[in-house]
Design brief:
The protein has helices at 2-14, 19-45, 74-89, 101-109, 171-182, 211-218, 245-248; strands at 94-97, 114-118, 129-133, 146-152, 183-195, 200-202, 206-208, 222-230, 236-237, 256-264. By secondary structure, the protein is of the alpha/beta class. The chain has two domains: 2-65, no CATH class; 74-264, Rossmann fold (3-Layer(aba) Sandwich), CATH 3.40.50.150. A hairpin with a 5-residue loop joins strand 8 and strand 9. Helix 3 runs parallel beside helix 4. The model has no long low-confidence stretch (mean pLDDT 90).
Length: 269
């Protein structure tokens, strides 16, 4: 029953409706009205009501029922986990492909320069972030290679047309080859993708990989230095055995997130 309700909730989010947020708004409307009456009474009694006259009405009735913030889920954990790893390793050059600018890239740019590759344009100019627009499913830029590369929650989108890229059934595989071409022999690739026990495509949002399927493809070019996993509850599990029985069933997840730390083979073939 709980699983079915969770599925219905996720489906409603995809269509732009958040039942929890709507419930909070309904509960909060009368509280906002009550607080406004109290505020207006205090303003009139203050002796200087002209300091803050009313502007446009902008009620936000739902945030009083929210938590202070979100410290769980795929993006929170992957962004922090990989940014910390890059800080510890201090690579000579770091290139990111397709990760969130206002999440992971901002984390890394707070302590070092980062080069960002994305198929979409980026208008903003930010110190410490060098931007390159490119489609990695086609020929990647020849002058790009680094001892440290990241691609967080992006590879699953390649070839689905979501971001204006050409539709390609094997776009993820072409993207992975391009990523590998960016990583210098002996260098590190930080890769995260949605992961679950039922491999599938949810067009045109993303693919969900099974852990054994992707592991075998990664081993063609990389050694696995570390595996972390965000489960369906949004909690991070670190330093996992990628060959364990639990790994064989993708830790029982329907929509988890595997965070791979990979070492490229010294061979350039």
């Amino acid at each position: 029953m709980a699983s079915r309700l969770g599925s219905l909730y996720m489906m409603s989010l995809r269509y732009g409706f958040d039942p929890r947020r709507t419930g909070s708004m309904v509960r909060g409307r009368w509280q906002v009205a009550r607080d406004r009456r109290a505020f207006n009474a205090q303003r009139q009694a203050s002796g200087h009501p002209e300091w803050f006259p009313d502007g446009a009405s902008w009620p936000i009735p739902f945030e009083r029922h929210d938590n202070a913030g979100t410290a769980s889920g795929h993006y929170f954990h992957q962004d922090l986990f990989v940014a910390r790893a890059i800080f510890r390793q201090s690579p000579r050059r770091h290139i990111d492909v397709g990760s969130r600018i206002d999440g992971f890239v901002a984390h890394v740019a707070s302590f070092r320069e980062v080069e960002v590759v994305d198929i979409r344009p980026m208008v903003s100019k930010v110190s410490g972030i060098r931007y390159v627009q490119a489609d990695l499913m086609s020929e990647p830029p020849q002058d790009l290679s680094a001892d440290s590369v990241s691609c967080l929650h992006a590879l699953e989108h390649f070839g689905l047309g979501r971001y204006g890229d050409p539709v390609s059934y094997d776009g993820w595989e072409r993207g992975l080859r391009a990523l590998t071409s960016l990583v210098m022999p002996g260098g590190t690739l930080y890769l995260s993708v949605p992961t679950g026990q039922h491999q599938r495509v949810e067009f045109n949002a993303h693919r969900v990989f099974s852990l054994p399927f992707l592991r075998e493809r990664l081993l063609q070019s990389y050694a696995i230095d570390n595996l972390a996993f965000v489960d369906d509850g949004g909690d991070l599990h670190e330093d996992l055995d990628p060959y364990s029985p639990e790994a064989e069933i993708s830790y029982g997840a329907e929509y988890g997130c595997a965070i791979w730390t990979l070492r490229r083979s010294e061979s350039t073939t």
